[in-house]
């Protein structure tokens, strides 16, 4: 593997351990974004997730509000002093996100599976050093996950993290995406310092399981969590069943036992 094993996890130390990224699956309106950002920021969360281009499995579902969200994000960022993370799935998304001062980018599971797209994204990132989080591919293929991370690393990005969001399976399961915990552990064996963030929302697909999956990840020494939070989860335009309210987030945080960092 050309060098990705040298990825350095120092950069994540600027964030609290464990790091929490919380916010809506999708930005739906300015009002929704300001409302949830205010509530989540009031709990001390410093990075808000906000999907604006949504990769939906089937057509005719809500595909995100697109670039008009940038103005809303700017206003939420300055009012509540938080950073914003968004998903990029093409070189054009990267260009627009960089132009609009998004703080952190992530590659979704449907992007990580495609080396051509990942390479185009990596090329568009050349010359910047924005933090980039790479979700695992939808299928349980460790090499594909490592390959996507390498392409981003080889483009000169030093602030890289991995998000574990589980793996799709045809088998009936309590999980929306089965966690297969060995795969992220194996990723860490290959790239020891890569920060590992668990996404219990997409692993579970169900808000009742968010706490248990989060606790397991923290017990395993994960560096952070990415959790979907919405002002009115049942009315969310995407991933309604797995989103939680800011009050539920606060309750989960109160009950999570945080392992003392070993390094
Ligand atoms: C998301 O983060 O809302 C998303 C689409 O996730 P994933 O790429 O993990 O399916
Ligand atoms: Mn989602």
TrEMBL record:
Transmembrane segments: none
GO terms classed as biological process: chorismate metabolic process
GO molecular function, one term: chorismate mutase activity
Name of the top EC class for this enzyme: isomerase
Keywords: Transferase
EC number(s) stated in the UniProt entry for this protein: 5.4.99.5
Annotated protein name in UniProt: chorismate mutase
Species name: Fulvivirga imtechensis AK7
